[in-house]
Amino acid sequence: MKINSIKKYLLPYSILANRQTTINHAFANGLARTGIYEERDVKHALKLLGQVPSKILCVYCGKKADTWDHLHALVLKGEYGGFGNVLGNLVPACKKCNGAKGNKEWRKFVNGLPIADESKQKITHQLEQYVEYYKISPCNFSNNAISANLKNLDRIKKDIFSLMQEADEEILKIKKVLE
Ligand SMILES: [Zn+2]
C-alpha cells in the first residue's frame, strides 16, 4: 500500500459522485440477460477457452482469475449493451485486467496489451471461437413494446440520482454546523 492511498478517505465524500456508476451498473445488471448455473456448462465454456476448472486463469494476461469479465460491456456509451450475464459473454479475468478493460471493445483491449503480437493473435483467436460457439444476439432495447417501460426506468434512475444529490446537500448543511 502507498502512503497516499489515504487521500480519498480524507477528502469530502459525495454520495452522488461516488455512487453514480454503481447505480448505473445495478440497472444494467438488472436488465441484463441471465443464465442458469450448470457446472457442466461452465466446464464446457472453460474448455472452449483452453482452461480447466481447477486452474481458472485470466484470458487476457494468464494470471489467476478472480472475476468474470463481460466481453461486451453491460453499459456502452450510456446505453445498455444487451449481451448480458451469460456464457459466451462472460470470461474469467483478473481484477487488474477487468478494471483496465472497462467498457473497451474486447478486441481493442487485447490489441493494446503489452504482449507480443503472436500472443495477442492467440488470445483473439481463442475468444473469437468462444463467441462464435455461443452466438449471442444482443437484446433489442429499441423494441417498441418496452419503450414506455424503459422510459420509466430511466425516470426512476434520474429520481434516485436527484435523491442522492439532495442527500449530499443535507450532509453539507449538517457538516457545516458540526465542524
Ligand atoms: Zn489479467
Number of helices: 7
Helicity level:
40-55%
Q: What is the total number of structural domains?
A: 2
Q: Could you spell the SSE succession in H and E letters? A: HHHEEEEHHHH
- Main sheet strand line-up: 1-4
Describe this structure as you would to a colleague.
The radius of gyration is 20 Å and the shape is globular. It has two domains: 1-31 and 143-179; 34-138, no CATH class. It is mainly α and 179 residues long. The mean pLDDT is 94. The longest helix has 32 residues, at 147-178. The chain has helices at residues 7-10, 15-31, 39-48, 95-101, 106-111, 117-134, 147-178; strands at 67-70, 75-76, 79-80, 90-93. Strand 2 and strand 3 form a beta hairpin. The strands form two sheets. It has a two-stranded antiparallel sheet. A two-stranded antiparallel sheet has the order 2-3. Helix 2 (15-31) runs antiparallel to helix 7. It starts with 6 loop residues before the first helix and ends with a helix.
List the SSEs and their pairings.
Elements: H1 7-10, H2 15-31, H3 39-48, E1 67-70, E2 75-76, E3 79-80, E4 90-93, H4 95-101, H5 106-111, H6 117-134, H7 147-178
Antiparallel strand pairs: 1-4, 2-3
Helix pairs in contact: 2-7
This protein binds zinc ion.
Zinc ion is lined by residues 58, 60-61, 63, 93-94, 96-97.
Key words describing this protein structure:
two-stranded antiparallel ribbon; 179 residues; binds zinc ion; 7 helices
What is shown here, in short?
The strands form two sheets. A two-stranded antiparallel ribbon has the order 1-4. Strands 2-3 form a two-stranded antiparallel sheet. By secondary structure, the protein is mostly helical. The radius of gyration is 20 Å and the shape is globular.
